[in-house]
Structure formats: C-alpha cells, structure tokens
Design goal:
The chain has about 400 residues and is mostly helical. It has helices spanning about 10-20, 25-35, 60-85, 90-105, 115-140, 145-150, 155-180, 185-210, 220-225, 230-250, 255-280, 295-315, 315-330, 330-345, 345-365, 365-375, 380-385. The two termini are about 30 Å apart. This is DUF4401 domain-containing protein.
C-alpha cells in the first residue's frame, strides 16, 4: 500500500508532467486551485458533518509554529527598538515588512492557519501604527480646547481619517490578495465601518456649518444619541449581508469565502445586537440598562428568538455566541430577576444556568434543532439556497 503524502510539492508536479503522469494543463489547474484557496482545509472535507468547520488551526504543528512565530516576532520587535531607538515610524515599517516576509514561508508555502492569522494581525496592526504615526507627523492634530479649534480642524480630521482608515483597508486588501487569510475580512469590515462613521460625522458637521442642520440643544442629546444608533445598525446590516452572500456562495463551506464569512458574522453581531436592543426596548443608550416593564420583556424575548432563528437558518453559531453573551449580560438579568427574588437564588447564578443550558442545547443538537425549526418553517425554494442540512 502506497503511503499518502502530507503535501505534494511543486517540484513533484513538474516531475509528474515530465514523466507523463499528468498533463501540463492539469498541473496548472492544480496550481490555480492552490492559489485561489491556499488556506482551505482540504483535509476537513470529510470531517464531522455537524461541525461548522472553523479552520482556525491546522493541528499540533501549526500551534508549534505559532509559538515560534510569536517568539520570533517579539525578539525582532525588541531588537528593532534597540537598533532604531526613537524612530517609531521605521519600527512600524520594518515590523510590517517582517510580518509579510515570514508569511511568505509560513502562509504562502506551508499554509499554517493559526500562525497565518497571527502574522496577518501583525501586519495589519503594524500598518495601522505606521499610518497613525504618518498622520500625527503630517497633520499634527491635537486635542482641541475651544469650539473654534474644533471648527478649524475639519479639513485636517477628514484627510487624516481617510489616510489612516483607507490605508488600512488598502493594505489589508493587498495582503489578502497575496495570502488569502480570512481574518482580514473582519479587519476590512471594521475599518470600513469606522470610515462610514467618519463620513457621516463630516456630513453632519457640514450641515451644521452651512445652516441646513439645526445644532442640537442639551435637551436633544438623548434623542440624538438614540438616532446615532442607526449608523452602526446600517453598517452591521451591510457586513451581515456580505457574510450571508459569502455563505450562500460557498454553501458546502469548502472554500476560503466561508471562513471570511465567519469573521464578518463576528464583526456584524455586536453592531446589530446593541442598536436593535436599545431601539426595541427603549432602554439606556450607552449601557443598555434594563428597567422593569412588560414591553421591554416582550421585545427582548422577540429579539432573542429572532437572532436564534437567523443563526439556525444560515447555520452560523458565530452569530449566536455574541448574541447570547450580550443578552446574557444585559437582558436575561431582568428576565430572571423576578425568579431570583422569589426563590432566593442569586441572579448571577440563574444567568449562568440559562446561558449554559442554551449553549449546551444548541451545541449538542444544533443540526437536529436546525432541521426541526428551519426545515419545517421555510419553503423548499428558500432552503435550497441556504447551507444544506447535515446528517
């Protein structure tokens, strides 16, 4: 019996073409497949069907290489601080180049998933630090002391924001084009959301400056803060829709796009949960403090059920986890508080029991629950477009 190799190298494929085992076209097609999804876990195609296939770590060797990558990066950083002392711009630049160079081996050649994620974050963080230093040195923006200084900073703030956030997005796109690391989808989504916030703020500023928008008074601030929730909600919906589109494009979750969708769901969940919770219950805008009320209880229950149903429909636990965490810390406290007052059980204990039971329930029987709830409530035409049910 011939032992199956862990990986077929490029030289092996060239040799196979030379001896006539495969054609040159087949070799080129294999190279194109590898380049299109270098981090796709081919070995996971026959894995447990009930898993969400979060290809975040490739095994013990990947973890081993990740530890080495962290140690190597830490050593390089401290060495750079010594050699380039007092030159933070150069330090950030060489760190970004260092991350790219190591990724050429770890990611491009060996496709180490966890180590590749660490290197991608290193590159994104170093690039953001580099751009922040450039912005600080170029525009020299300082904390304003008077309203007139705020008005005078409009042009500087807009240019600095576009340079910083736009540069991060461009660098992340370039890195993703080269290495196909899924977590960069989340980085791009966060930077794009911040850019949308900046643009909205500038539009409001221009409206106030031109007189087309009335400046809010102190009494209007609570309503203004509540209206400001529309911006993260819209951004969250855009990110969520993009993630769902990628999920529908890769229904079997065998390509890198489903991994990108995972990180987009992680980013979109907080932006959806908090605004919807505040708008639906009418609670405190900043902290989401729960006040007794039947309407808040009903709306909170509807929101939880709605998020659970959507998570089941698109087969994404990554959307449900932050939702349960948020409602567990803010909403479920009120739902179980009355029971705590009558039984004497601490509310914190009831919160842990409730969240823990839900997590175990959905974790142990996710596909059965999904098939029972989603399969029996949606038409076949819709089910055919969603991720398939798994045995």
């Amino acid at each position: 019996m011939v032992r199956e190799p862990d990986e077929i190298t490029g030289s092996t494929l060239h040799t196979a073409v030379a001896v006539g085992v495969i054609t040159a076209r087949q070799r080129d097609q294999l190279f194109a497949l590898q380049a299109s999804a270098p981090l796709a876990a081919v070995g996971n195609l026959e894995s447990d069907a009930d898993e969400e296939n979060l290809r975040l770590i490739g095994g013990g060797n990947d973890l081993f290489v990740t530890v080495g990558t962290v140690l190597l990066t830490a050593g390089f950083y401290f060495a750079s601080n010594t050699v380039l002392a007092g030159r933070p711009l150069w330090i950030a630049g060489v760190l970004a180049l260092f991350g790219w160079g190591v990724a050429e081996v770890v990611t491009r050649q060996h496709r180490m998933k966890l180590a590749s994620t660490v290197l991608a974050l290193l590159f994104a963080g170093s690039t953001a630090a580099l751009l922040a230093i450039v912005v600080e040195q170029t525009y020299q923006i300082r904390l304003p002391e008077t309203i007139w200084e705020v008005l005078a900073l409009r042009g500087q703030v807009s240019q600095a924001g576009y340079l910083l956030l736009g540069g991060v997005i461009a660098a992340a796109l370039l890195y993703f084009w080269r290495f196909r690391v899924p977590i960069l989808a989340g980085v791009i989504a966060i930077a794009a959301t911040l850019l949308a916030f900046l643009q909205t703020t500038l539009l409001l500023y221009d409206g106030v400056a031109s007189g087309t928008v009335t400046p809010p008074s102190l009494q209007d601030m609570p309503e203004l803060l509540r209206a400001a929730l529309y911006m993260p909600l819209i951004c969250g919906l855009v990110v969520f829709a993009t993630a769902v589109a990628l999920d529908l494009y890769d229904r079997e979750r065998r390509k890198i796009w489903s991994d990108c969708a995972f990180w987009l769901h992680v980013v979109s969940a907080p932006m959806l949960v908090h605004p919807l919770f505040i708008m639906a219950t009418g609670q405190d805008v900043v902290f989401g403090r729960i006040e007794p009320g039947v309407d808040a209880t009903i709306m909170l229950s509807i929101l939880i059920i709605g998020f659970v149903y959507v998570a089941l429909a698109i087969d994404r636990r990554s959307l449900l986890v932050p939702t349960l965490a948020y409602f567990g810390s803010l909403g479920i406290y009120y739902l179980v508080n009355s029971a705590a007052n009558t039984t004497g059980i601490p509310p914190f204990a009831l919160i842990l029991l409730t969240i823990g039971a839900l997590v175990i329930l959905f974790g142990a029987g996710w596909q059965r629950i999904r098939r029972l709830i989603v399969g029996s409530t949606l038409p076949t035409s819709v089910l055919d477009k969603l991720p398939p049910f798994k045995v």
